[in-house]
Amino acid sequence: MSLSIRPVDFVADHQELLCVLQRNLQDIPHEARLAWLYRDNPAGPASTWFLCDDNGLAVGVTSLFPRAVWLDGTAALCGQVGDFGVDLRFRSLGPAVMLQRATFAPVVQGCLAFCYDCPPHQRGMAMFHRIGLRENCLMQWYVKPLRTERQLQRLLGRTTGRITARAANPILRLASKRAKQRPGTDFTLQTDAFGPEFSALDKAVHAPSAVRNRRSAEDLNWRFRQNPLRQFEVLTARRDTELLAYLIFSVVDEDALVFDLFGRELDQVGPLLLQKLTELLQERPVQTLRAMLAGDGSYSSVFRRAGFSLRGAAAHVVAFAGSEGAVHDALERPLQWQFQHSDVMA
Predict the structure, then answer these.
(1) What is the pTM of this model?
(2) pLDDT digits (tens, 9 = 90+) for 112-127
(3) CA end-to-end distance (rounded Å), the chain
(4) C-beta atoms surrounding 258 within 10 Å
(5) Contact 228, 28 (CB under 8 A)
(6) Which CATH superfamily is domain 4-117 in?
């Protein structure tokens, strides 16, 4: 059986795209997020390809979602590979490589500076090894325990665990107070939209010899305020009303996730923001606070100072920038990937 690749027409192929996605990525409500993710992205619309059998039927899919980034201090446009799925009977290395190579085309054609994928485990690296690509950075989980009920009930049983947690929680709360308060810095929850001051902060934070996603107000509003699948909260740090830094988090059931921490003076302000978030969440029935960070990035020390511990690998980031050129050379250097959870979520 011969397989082929063809671009997706989002109007003519709308229903077929939904069918292929729902067959292969069943945990995602694709219809609810399709327009937001594929069309409304401020960095540009998605590019999508079908893997087709010899009857022309779609048996696999992959997409490339544009991402505006700062690369070595210069603005650039790249793409994140996502919504990658292949029907069960075609799940082998060959069809997967065909789809992956399709995402390289906009880079080769000069439309994007580079593209990157984020396989969640080491098995997913086999396809990249086959086409000669290596891991550019490793995303890792960092965790901070906030309450002990869930773990103690698992270890000791429901009744004994609940009683023991009453004594353990105050000790854990006391131990979590690591960061010293900084006079003149105000911390508040922001409930309205991201405004121009967030775009100004993004431009003010320079990152030479690094790659990070752009955080303009337009980007932030799209990703966090208009997201149809998840609710986010924003905690800001200000000095004399001037925005210094912020973090974006989301709570689901008994767990909280930090999706983004960004700003100026993060060495000092970052641990304070995380401490304020800890205090806020300790008033809720939240058991753990988690964050996903690039292993070679500049954020891990900030989170460690706020009481987070490394818990293991989360995802691999693999970039493609063609075989030559300035971007290829930049990515070949020991470039610092300042990636967090928001940079690898689709």
Answers:
(1) 0.89
(2) 999 999 988 888 888 8
(3) 32
(4) 27
(5) no
(6) Gcn5-related N-acetyltransferase (GNAT) (3.40.630.30)
